Amino acid sequence: MPKLMPVAHVDKTKYTGKKLNVALVGLGRYAAILADGLQASAYCKLAGVVTGHPEKGEAWKKQYNLADKNIYNYSNFDSIDHNPDIDVVYIVLPNSMHKEYTIRAAKGGKHVICEKPMALNAADCEEMITACKNAGVQLAIGYRLHYEPYNLELKRLGQEKVFGQVRLIEASLGYRTTDPGEWRLKKALAGGGPLMNVGIYCVQSSRYVSGEEPTSVTAQFGPVTDNKLFNEVEASIIWQLDFPGGLVSNCTSTYACGVDRFFASADYGQFELSPGISYGPFKGKTSNGELKFPDINQQAAQMDGIGKLILENKPLPSHIAGEEGLKDMKVIDAIYKAAATGERIMLA
Ligand code: NDP
Asked: What pTM was computed for the model?
């Protein structure tokens, strides 16, 4: 693991010194990575956990010096509304549980950060946004790449048309899955296969590099590489997004093999990252040469970006708020519909 740079963009000029107290819900693999990020965060700290396993609660309490009253399970979670020591609830559960726990946290008066994919479909995302608005709390989606320097550069190169209009994007993300017990292979928990889990990053990068929303989508399911593993969700999916400015984005997400690459070709040049979506270190180049940025702690950067705004009582920008999760989910709903029907699905 390379040594990560400190988070560079933190501006402490308006900071009062209070850290935002965060409770993580669901103590799995990504929660452990977020806990490390919270340790490195200038504006947030891990203050509580919600878990279905008391022994995990006990271990986390010791490791992170958490107060007894800040350890919850899924049944007593709603009593968090009486706990002034928790400001933000961060949902790191299987996808099908995001909606329920977002709405319960909002009803408890807590700001919410919800992991990607925001929910199982766009209608559920809309319910979550409404619940948070009604409760007067903020809702963010855990889109860590919005704070990551290589991806911020992709966004700049595309949106500022540094090489002219982007005409073609090729984005692929996948890894080989072999564990039949993984919840990501169960439709009821995951909502879908690699598209829900990792393809969402290809949808995201296509949207933030173009700065536009796609107008139509076509899609195809890839081959079923293992009948036992892929009997509920797709093994692979390939899709094409058309954008109003004249860009076509060809994307693939898969559980059959490893891939992590983004490539864009514009009128006068090209830019690419590979790898560029995982936790880093990243590698990239443009027609002008190699891209070189610090490898940051992405989770700390994300927590600082969100935490500072909440502490200052400022609204979160739409590109990290629930609205962004909803936009992605509308595209994902259309991709699944296009693959199932074989038809071009219009989005605008
Ligand atoms: P894990 O399977 O590692 O952890 C999920 C946790 O959820 C479990 O450990 C468990 O915690 C809890 N849980 C509650 N009910 C269930 C259930 N029925 N089945 C399985 N787990 C259950 O998943 P990840 O941490 O990898 O993913 C969690 C979420 O985070 C997903 O939505 C995923 O998309 C997202 N994610 C985001 C990443 C990013 O880079 N932004 C990276 C990885 C994941 P407990 O035992 O404490 O109850």
From this structure: 0.95
